[in-house]
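Wait, mind explaining this?

_____
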Amino acid sequence: MTHSSRPGELPRAAEDPSSPLSPGTHTISVRHGSADVDVCYHVAGTGPVCLAHSGGPGIGWDYLRMPDLEAFLTMVYVEPVGTGDSGRLPDPRDYTVPTYTHFLHGVIEHLALPPVILLGHSHGGFVAQQFALDHPEQLAALVLYDTSPVTDDQFWAAAVSSMEQFVNDHADDHPETAGYVEALTTRLELLDDDGTTAVLRTMMPAYVFDYWGREAEFAPARRSMRMYAAATRGEGPPFDVRDELPDIATPTLVLAGRQDFICGPRWAALLHEAIPAAELTILESTGHLAHVERPGQFAAVVGAFLETRGVLNGQQTF
């Protein structure tokens, strides 16, 4: 298994628009209620097909580009509705996990493939869990990456507490971190795209391990990250599928960074303990963005899991 060090530029449009898996950017229309909504997705790499759903909600897909996985997987990066060049929903209250799951299903139906691999990061992991519950027949494997099965008050209290600890650890050398807790608890739905992006970029150092020790590597990603306000305006109950997790029969890799302040080992353990076919990997000295912080190790773990389960050679074991 070989790994590239940097992602190449994707074509601005699909090289062959008639082929759903042609490298580049595709746009399809998915029916939602009485509206037809555009959804963009981006294809790169070679091998079995893996769909990747980014986090947020509302963070642009670009940060999730995984060139090391593209060395052995055909990566299909979904651009969630409400972000980038994908469409916006008529009712902003409708940006919910069931809605994202509906649009993800639309993309997979468009691809018209045998069962695929699904990778969900952070909030995208909520979508991936819901999809695995709703459409298990369409999945060969599931990668739940730095995510949680629940986002109740306890989850958010733990995130705030972890951020407070991060500030305490770094405020003397980096006084700008004093505003990180306020940024984490900002009401994003009251902001515009520039405002949400500013909040994301402000506290990005907390999402990786040793940001300032590797600032030359991480600063460009920090400057390029985008967040879109529309997707932060969804309304609905807190996400909680803990009671349903035993119903997930798809072979599942649960992967988290040891120092991930928001979706770390505590929440990964809940997934691992409840999903019957789950394996757990905790990456040391790693935060919320393992594919950026430790791309080779991240890809090796994913690749080994898929090989063990027979997904890379088409001999799935369940």
